[in-house]
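#lab-general

N.A. 3:47 PM
ok so I finally got the sequence cleaned up, no stray characters, all 164 residues accounted for. can someone with queue access submit it? mine expired

B.Y. 3:52 PM
send it over

N.A. 3:53 PM
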Amino acid sequence: MSIFKNKADGTDRPEERKSPGGEAGVSIIAAGMTIVGNIESNGNVRIDGRLIGKLVCKARVTIGGKGRIEGSVDTANALIEGEVHGEIMVRELLQLQESARISGDITTVRLAVQDGAIFTGNIKMGKEAKEILARTPVPNLIPNENHKPDASQAAAVRDKVKTA
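B.Y. 4:20 PM
back already:
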């Protein structure tokens, strides 16, 4: 055990100890892991592997230096060190570290960018972003009981994973 860990829950990062809902811990997609599909979380999420799909997080998303998302992100707060290829909606603060590589449109109320971060796309911030986000409810990804996966979409995702 590291001497810097919190005695109560063993975590190293104070911002990742508890989500707003009070649940302990962080959901992690580890390096070497690929998830194909949608993820919804009330708690914090850390991506060190690869996600192909949508990520909806009502707390904080951290994308590590080797982390990669190919799809959309909708979250309250985000810290990005890795790559995102797709739309990003951050309802509070988006932080782009110097190693961040973003390709897609961003909508956020506040943005902090370190020197070296690369962004290709359009951005909406401040008052305009607040208005857009107020009109855009946080999506619910959990399908209803009658949901049937689209076979052509599933095949396209399988092909994308095979070529990666």
